[in-house]
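Message: Just now I want nothing more than another pair of eyes on a protein record. I am handing you a single protein, as its sequence and its fold in token form. As I understand it, each token names a local backbone shape. Take your time, and here it is.
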Amino acid sequence: MTDRSSLNQAEGPTHEWAALDRDLNRISRVEDATFYIARPMVGFGLAIVFVALAALWAAIIVGGAPGGVMIIVASVFAAYLALNIGANDVANNMGPAVGANALSMTGALVIAAVCETAGALIAGADVVGTIANGIVAPSSFANSDIFVIAMISALLSSAVWINLATFLGAPVSTTHAIVGGVVGAGIAAAGFGAVDWGGIGRIAASWVVSPVLGGVMAAASLALVHRLVIDRADKIAAARVWVPVLIGIMAWAFGAYLAVKGLKQIVHVSMAGALLIGAALGVISYLASRPYIARKSIGLENRNKSLKVLFQLPLVVSAALMSFAHGANDVSNAIGPLAAIVQTLGLNGADVGSIPLWVMVIGALGISLGLLLFGPKLISMVGDQITKLNAMRAYCVALSAAVTVIAASWLGLPVSSTHIAIGGIFGVGFYREWGEARRMSRGLETEAAPAIANEERRRRRLVRRSHFLTIVAAWIITVPATALLSALGFLALRLLMG
């Protein structure tokens, strides 16, 4: 019989090491949990550093000039707003490509940051004037100090609202947020007569026009792709013929889109000229993509999943171009009120229509940094959680965004790029639901849609209704909410400053 004491002595070291391993594992799990909890604080800390640097840079630029303190304060709020615009708005450009697995999250963040900055610095200055002077004229206010306080209130209220929307996972129009902020402060400071209500009416109309146009265009594009490629017996052969055509159409759309939204800030481009530029790029892209598609299609199986390989490159390019155009257009939302303050106080020789470079840099870098620090959450939501996207559906969303902006510009309709992109995703999802219901009614069974009981099909939804309702509600209340916040902020600042 084995002696128990000798057995315990033999097993003692092993038991001790096992206990030590368990303790070390517990410590490792605590370290992992601490790191996980601390990660958001790193982004928060870097954001604070950027805001502080913006204030320091503004202090160096304006020095001890009259009104310099107000410009420094406005620069702080403009930097805060730019960070929030990057965290919220850029998701609309990168979400579809990430959701379709055409881009990794890291790749999307890098491409968007570079293109957003380039678009803002190269082609963003002219657009700023709309926010700076086109909603509430500085001459409507009793004096320049009142106008400056109103613009600071607009910056702060817009930033707070977009920050809240990002926290809740709702992609909102940052254009509408800053417009609401300017309107609310303008009413509180100078009355209802100071506001251009015709312009506000056009913006309100875009609440409906933008998502509907984007959704209809995306659904029509997906129907076309189904007819030309997806529903064909030999999908790969059809793709060799039609995918280069679809790439050419996208190149035309984005060429004209960039001319309308970006290049016209550098040189004057008429709508006809923009369409010609787009047509030239479309032909070049078609000719260049034919051998590329022919080479990529070699050896592909005749399946829908094989087609995503052929749509990846145009998706990456479209995401980059959309980010460039977004930077050129939406940098005005971040720095428009700051530019208006600088112009009103006449510092550094800044006249109306002349935007100092240092002001542009705050907006450009703030948007890019906000994207890098806080953008992944909303990019994932837009790309994955509204409806399931593959490369073909994401292509249709990107194409609809470009074509809708061109059509709206030609018709003179004010539209929101945010609403168009999200509307396109909803359009693709609802089109798929309609297609599934249609196949069910006909009793058809496909690889992607096998036979399922009628009750089960009715229960299934391809668009998450909770996200749909949350986003629509956020769209509706953005302008009233930011206007109210801005009005309250103006009254509080006026009271504090005597």
In short: The CA atoms of residues 235 and 302 lie 6 Å apart.
